[in-house]
Amino acid sequence: xxxxxxxxxxxxxxxxxxxxxxxxxxxxxxxxxxxxxAAALTVEALLAPSAxxxxxxxxxxxxxxxxxxxxxxxxxxxxxxxxxxxxVLQQTNCRAGPGQDxxxxxxxxxxxxxxxxxxxxxxxxxxxKSAESPAGVCWLWGEYVEVKGSYWVVSSVTPPPTSTKxxxxxxxxxxxxxxCSVGQLTVNIAWTDRANDxxxxxxxxxxxxxxxxxxxxxxxxxxISYTAxxxxxxxxxxxxxxxxxxxxxxxxxxx
Length: 255
Prior knowledge:
With about 260 residues, this protein is an alpha+beta fold. It is about 15% helix and about 35% strand.
């Protein structure tokens, strides 16, 4: 027969009260109120679930702890580096600095390839290694080149100071002739071009510029009307951004 907790509590209570009331037991008999209290405590203890059972139950029903998987090591992608280079697309000047105020060091022909070592993006110029330059480097304008390789890693470079350029060397008149005939003057002048950085030439007659000639010009001729007794003077002036110089003056008159 299965004994339940309420039945067991009743049996214990009956046995306890009977034992306390047996004559000649030698034990002190508890007052009726104490007997009831003790019996009630005994029953409550039997009916209350034990702490051990509760802990075991909670432990048994607790969900298992699962670990969160961690991701493995990730690799770093390193971009591939290649030498910054440029290719000249058409004949262009390589200068001592990034701009036309700098001296031309060398003129490269199309398809020449050069290593880039610096940049001046403000004026779209590239600093390149140059075996032809005394300094070992020169500047190319980006308009006429094609860049390739890792050119974006090239550092910006401060351009060198512009040098104070002197005016071009004065021309030297080598030969001149004139002919006065029936009110018509014909003049021919030839000179030596001694400049290598000129922008152009001017022909000055009687203090006024009468002709503008391109760089490397070496002669000039003209025919003008005159009146008997007129006097004429000529000189040749060469110029660039730094200034101008002039030849010696020639002068004559028509009878």
